[in-house]
Amino acid sequence: MTGQRLEPDRAVLACRVVEPDDWCRRCGCQGAPRDTVTRRLAHEPLGWRPTTLLVTVRRYRCRECGHVWRQDTSAAAEPRARLSRCALRWALEAIVLAHLSVARVAEALGVGWHTANNAVLAEGRRVLIEDPNRFAGVHVIGVDEHAWRHTRRGEAYVTVIIDLTPIRDGAGPARLLDMVSGRSKAVFKTWLDAQPAAFRDGIEVVAMDGFTGFKTAAAETVPDAVAVMDPFHVVALAGEAVDRCRQRVQQDIQAHRD
After folding, report:
1. How many CB atoms sit inside 10 A of residue 123's CB?
2. Residue 224, CA distances (Å) to 165, 200, 236 in order
3. Considering only CA atoms, which of 109, 91, 100, 120 is closest in space to residue 43?
4. DSSP state of 9
5. Burial class of 154 by CB neighbour count within 10 A (0 to 12, 13 to 18, 19+)
6. How far apart are CA 209 and CA 233, in angstroms?
7. Tens digit of pLDDT for each residue in 198-234?
């Protein structure tokens, strides 16, 4: 049962759990209804108006052991979560597909920045990082380093691993597989060793920059894969070679390089 009303600053949806849940979690005996409570959840926005989902649930008391419990609301939200499942899905799509900021998502949901950020990170890890099928069909990977932190404290660089198979096959854009703290042969080799053997056996090409550590790690872990230099660094090296040639010719002709 669901109803809807509008308040000055938000929309409110009300629903009730109708499925009975009257068997005790402790002793297995049947319980008796005790009272009802309402669970408030941030829900998918109505337009850009923050929406609250009010879920009314019944509480039961076991006739034998006295244990008190609530009806199961896991279909609406995770236990102790402040965002509904629909809100989590909306927030993840807003950040990944629409490129909205966490602050904008938090504003649309009517929750704090940290609440939205923590919920989106957890949902992203669940549906993306922990997806057992996300490595399926990966045959071409790219590896590079990225300056993640521009401060003196903490690890400044991360190793980024990309699925380039869609680029090679003309099927779509590249896809981020993972980001690992640090930049070294050991970091990349450890990541490859941690993957299933079927994944490593399926790697045909590893694209990278000129760092020998990445090449050595690939040669030791996926020896049948072909190591190539990625297009960005090929163009960068070509540009540097042309610039050195220009400077040499200008030095010979005009006695200065610039």
Report:
1. 19
2. 17, 9, 27
3. 109
4. S
5. exposed
6. 6
7. 999 999 999 988 888 999 999 999 999 999 987 776 6
Residue 148 dihedral angles phi and psi, to the nearest 5°: -90, -35
Q: Provide the token pair at 67.
A: 């244990």
Write out pLDDT tens, residues 87-126: 999 999 999 888 899 999 999 999 999 999 999 989 888 8
CA gap 2, 55 in Å, rounded:
9
Is residue 116 a contact partner of residue 105, using CB atoms and an 8 Å limit?
A: yes
Calculated CA dihedral for residues 49, 53, 54, 55, nearest 10 degrees: 170
Q: What phi and psi, each to the nearest 5 degrees, are found at residue 60?
A: -120, 155
Q: Are strands 205-208 and 140-147 parallel, antiparallel or unpaired?
A: parallel
Candidates 125, 124, 122, 105; CA nearest to 113 is 105
Rounded-to-integer distance, Cα 237 and Cα 231, Å: 10
User: What is the rounded (10 degree) CA torsion for 244, 250, 253, 256?
Assistant: -110
Nearest to 143 by CA among 190, 208, 50, 218: 208
Residues 216, 147: Cα–Cα separation, whole Å: 22
Q: How far is CA 102 from CA 49, 93, 111, 119, 124, in A?
A: 16, 12, 11, 11, 13
